[in-house]
Batch of 2 targets.
Target 1
Amino acid sequence: MDDFDDALNPPDPPDALRIPEPPVVLTRPGHPIRRADIDPDALRIMTRLQRMGFIAYLCGGAVRDLMLRRTPKDFDVATDARPGQIRKRFANVFIIGRRFRLAHVHFPGGKIVEVATFRRDPDPAPAADVDPDPHAIYGTPREDAFRRDITINALFYDPAIDAVIDYVGGLEDMRRRRVRTIGDPGVRFTEDPVRLWRVLRHAARLGFDIEPATAGAIHSHGPLLASAAGSRLYEEFNKDLGAETRPVFEALRANGLLRHFLGKAGLDYETDPALFARVVSLLDVEERARKDGFLLSLDEIYALVFWPWLEPLFEEGGEDMAPVLGAAFQNAEMKMTIPKALRANVIQILVLMDGLIQALRSGHPRAALLHRSHLPQATRLLFLIEKGRPPADDETFESLFKAAHPEAPLEAQIRRRRRRRRRRKGGGDPGGTTPAGA
Ligand code: ATP
Ligand code: MG
């Protein structure tokens, strides 16, 4: 009897099953995208491909951002032309990637437009008797939309008909201001745990809600993030550094994900509110500086991210801090791979910056301080951390020192310390008890 009733009154399908078929095609004035908003080189590539008989759409983040009247970071093109066909028909094309080959079309000034062939989700386990077609990765526009991470990232824009094409319900989610994985969130997170991070990123950046099933799966699948490849975690982190870092960092912390890629550093940031408050306030300083046109290098940004975490070690003291910091990174068991050279630079910058801070506080600089190659970076960070702003063009460590110790010019202090040390080395004063200035 129950079965019979159910058949008469079928429940509403879950949201994930309300998939438009065929796609929703939204023309103007239903959408706000104007051709003038699109990068002219990307537009030219699409127009040429279409004239040659290919499908060519603007895709991914660009369509999402244009729909929301935000400025896209880059303009990616999706097409049914294969990478080889693109290379033959355009100048300055570089094919990159091994499994997913992408065409990069280079333009003067260093601009690159990425042109990717529509592809589909790889078969989890291709049957042995199936022809191992190397092109099995390519797909239709529909398949390409479905292999993407979240619905609002899977819209296409077709410049020929000036329309947004939606296979996955992304327009509806945009209207409802929510982030939803395409398909079952548990399945999609298990396929690629980096998507956990991406959901939080896009929701945090746009101020969107996370659809309940997606949010629930983030909660239950969080630890999977630690199983992603270290290099991909590093890539994702770099996307957040230098672009609305604070809201994403806060969302990662609120969902307990920091520990899954930053190891002990992430755990400390999650469990110590004061420590976390400090790092996000530094990220704010960085963001303000960036908006004023002051760009930090990757080394400097990483140094800023790890400074609050490592600062207590400096307070414990020690002559040679570089190995202490090295050991802290080693023992933190971060899943994210930080390239060795980057880590080494971060350590050098922070050790030097601490030296500068000590010199400022004590008025007694160490002679070697001003001859280290990382002095410019350490000084920039010092201003950001101590003053909450970048240095002006004419501001240096010397000027900072002079302001703090007008009575004791830096060079004179250094000369005095050098003399004292030489005297000590000469055996005159092994205990180092010579009074300053003697
Ligand atoms: P941003 O503005 O940060 O560049 P984006 O959406 O363009 O945002 P990208 O990392 O540049 O993000 O990725 C481009 C597109 O590729 C995304 O919009 C999405 O459609 C797809 N994509 C990226 N990463 C994944 C993933 N892990 N799984 C599925 N699709 C993905
Ligand atoms: Mg992008």
Note: The chain has 19 helices and ten strands.
Target 2
Amino acid sequence: MSSPQPSDLPCAAGTPFVQVQDACKTYGTGEKAVQALSHVDLQVPRGRFVSVIGPSGCGKSTLLRTVAGLEQPDGGSVRICGRTAAEAGAAKMIGFVPQVPALLPWLDVLGNVRVLEKVNRGGGARRHGGAGQGLASDPVALLTRLGLGDVLHRRPGQLSGGMQQRTAIARAFALEPQVLLMDEPFSALDEFTRESAQLQLLDVWQELRTTVVFVTHSIAEAVLLSDSVVVMAARPGRIAGVVDVDLPRPRHHGLLDSADMHEHEHRIRQVLETAWNPVEDVA
Ligand code: ADP
Ligand code: MG
């Protein structure tokens, strides 16, 4: 009997594609124990772009690594389309873009995108017959859309940080994951490079509609990119609130100065501030 394909899995309409329930994770023991995740619930519907934002050390990477199956929670569960994180990982359903791109230095940009495609492709858009399937299976087109058409034959050592990161993003999309997890991929980029990388990412995502969980510590970046923003707070790492972003797509940088944008940023700041300064219970 052949194993079930991701598209056969129990993902009824309306059920979350990525579901984290009551996840807890503590590093260390005794006085040195750090509660990185405390009863975290996260739901991401299929095809959504969700950002996770919060101050440094609040557990964003731990949450992302837990969804990826790279960390085991002490309690709670992770399901991706009904599968455990380990099962989803084995079925090549999960793509991961780390903060520092891990490119192979001896291969050029195109080679880095192609190197894993035969062995590791997950079967996301293609198996689902998604509209953007051609783009994911055409590395040159993908790289061109990400602004790398002129550097296909450069090696990582000849690229700027922004180009390296976009190569890593192209490689992740080319593997056609069902879920793409990105951990602050643009945090090391200067503001100008970052802005164009954000728009290029959105351009590709708009076509492929991969389910994305994107970690950032930039409020503006979270609003610009996302359908909803999950706000985390620290000590213990927990979800302080979720702010839905009902701005029209396609997004553009003109939005950054708009009243709508500021309104969303304000709401996120309020959630962050409330989490940092909880109202004291005065009896
Ligand atoms: P963020 O990504 O939001 O900056 P992390 O998930 O990396 O936060 O870390 C959350 C907390 O857990 C931090 O206090 C961090 O120091 C701690 N932590 C993360 N990974 C480990 C680890 N492998 N061992 C011990 N402590 C860790
Ligand atoms: Mg982190």
Note: DSSP finds eleven helices and nine strands in the chain.
